[in-house]
Specification:
By secondary structure, the protein is an alpha+beta fold. It contains ten helices and 15 strands. The chain has a four-stranded mixed beta sheet. It binds zinc ion.
Length: about 325
Amino acid sequence: MTKDYYKILDITELSSQDEIKTAYRHLARKWHPDVAGNSPDVIARFKDINEAYQILSDRTKKADYDTARRFYSYASGAKKSDFKTTGTEKKKSEKTGEDKRGFSFNWEEFIAKKYRETQFKKEKKVKTPKRGEDVYSDIEISIFEAMSGTSKVINMLQTHICPNCSGRKFVNGAQCSFCKGKGETSTYKRFNVKIPAGIKDKSKIRLSGEGDKGLYGGANGDLYLTIHIREPKNYKTDGLNILKTLPITPYEAVLGANISVPTMKGNVSLKIAPNTQNGQKIRLSGCGIVQNNRVGDMIVTVEIQIPKTMTNEEISLYKRLQEISSTSVRED
Ligand SMILES: [Zn+2]
């Protein structure tokens, strides 16, 4: 340990950066050779004050110095009064290479060694290949798509190392204009995802290597797509057949109608014949589930529903129907 910078600036290890600065300014003024004279002692002391400030005002250097200082105190059993405070004493210890207790410690060498170790670790870290992160997303499909199999186009946002600055964020000292200093770029990639027939709800499809990019030669992550099968409304399945309940109004049942019904083959116009009864079944051939070159039908069950709200005019028309009705649906 060559010098006690705390003693030189007349402060302690607990002094704040502001206190260090104030102490330095005060002493630098007091011991300036223009003020205190040009003697070798004054010049040496002025140099020490500046040196002390350079180390203690830099957080990293201060932390390393503190470590070295404590180590020295411990190893040598030195008391605070044993630390040298002036350049003249420094000369003495430099000559012998050891202090008066016969213990030598060069903290500058200690810091330099520590710095080299940190740099080595940093470089080592940079070169280690890093596998890209896995990415997770979801795909929603209908029960028919799940049973028949389908393909879905999805767009995934992918992040890459900026090709312009190679992730360094700066080019020739200026912020990279391509990635605006982010070091990475994001683009959408289109995937045509094949979903096999008979896929179960919550199952995952893995697209190998389509996750985040690996670093320093590391492999890419994977993309996992979780399948969500939409809860079917008014549909059931029976083997390859799709069973559907179709609500119709009383007048559609009486007069007949053409109603558009969504099926595996797209919308199909379903003909309701006049005088259709409640519960009557209509078969739409070839509109069921397709599996292994076989195809089922859609079976539509008609359900006559009374509208929940009706206008006074509608109700009065029903009253009129009641008055003029000639037949009964009951046999007796
Ligand atoms: Zn860039």
